[in-house]
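dumping the sequnces here before i forget
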Amino acid sequence: MIMKFDSLTTAIADGKLESAVENVNLALKAGLNPQTIISDYLILGMEQIGQRFSEGKAYVPNLLMSGRAMKGCLEILRPLMIGEVSVSYGKVVIGTVKGDLHDIGKNLVATMFEGCGFEVINVGIDVSSDKFIEAVKENNADILCLSALLTTTMTYMEEVIKALDVAGLRQQVKVMIGGAPLSESFAKQIGADAYTSDANSAILKAKQLLGVA
Amino acid sequence: MEKHLQLSLSELSLSKREINLSLGYGRNQPDQLIEEIINQELQIINQFCRPSIYLRILDGDLVNHSELKVLDTIFLVGEIIGNNLHGISKFCLFVVTTGIEFDEYKKDLRKQNKQLEEFVADAIGSVIAESCVDYIHKYLQGNDLKTTLGYSPGYCGWRLEEQKLLLSLLPSSKCNISLSDSSLMTPMKSVSGILGVGKNVRRKGYSCGICTLDNCYKRKQKRMNLN
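..and the predicted 3d for all of it:
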């Protein structure tokens, strides 16, 4: 008998941690495999809250609550997936550029990426181009996300992109940028692939760039 | 005139509406659960946060339409600010901060993986810092001085790098604020700026219509207010 766990999707979309965890345990008991739970129910819930956010019907705290519910579920499911090949949309290296210590927005984007089925390597704040290059190389990343909140640090993004070029990695990784003082035209000017203004549009753009939308 | 003020949050009369705005809600109300988290964070922050204000009133004048001279320091404030400070001869240079304890508290929340609480605390911190600037206006008005709007490096065409010059005229020891090479202040919830003062000063609005900073938070807040 195939059981449906739509309430799990709803719990994620509504950011209800306890209900999500309870439903994950029920789904496991019913024999659903962890990867199916993630791709058919959890990610769907994150997509739903993302959609509500883009329609102005949900706000950043709602995204964070959904992200928290998602994390709670993944903590149960991941240990059960050892040895299995996990299905992900792609690998994302994300960090705040050198000289900048802001990380709330960057961490929100990282949480959303994770919740929406990407593998995320969060390299933190005040990150040098060398460290970004190393992380992209080591993880064979598909996307590099750069964050900056200051007009004095956003210019460093161009250095990172140039360093990717010099390292021969520019063609293998898409570069996305975000942060309060940035814009689409700045992204074009420094040779980034995309600028997005919020966490949800970052997910949509990443999927589009990787051709998985 | 120089003044160092240490305040409690009750003296700032923080507005719930401003907190909601800072959280991105515009005119809408957070749901009950988020409301509870906001109240909980306000309660915790109220226990330890003692914001500081340091202000200094100095003589100065506009050298031309975009340069302001205070003592021997010339600030390249740009035309938007220059226009709004035209004809003024006294300036209040200020710095406000929520204090290092606030940064430490946010760090603790991050360590505990409390991302939502950290986001809410951060928004409250922004409102506290802005309320300190409002407090300066009230304080000066209480001393029979009218004020222009406050202007900070990084906004309205005034380059962020000039924060170094501004802070050089304010003793850093008073508020324990340090500045990084990229002009980032520590504690992070700090605001520095300048405002015109005098008996006959007129206040003009922020000139978003002629400013090129598309993603300025003041512009965003105006948009949200309309939604």
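Residues 34-54 of chain A form the longest helix (21 residues).
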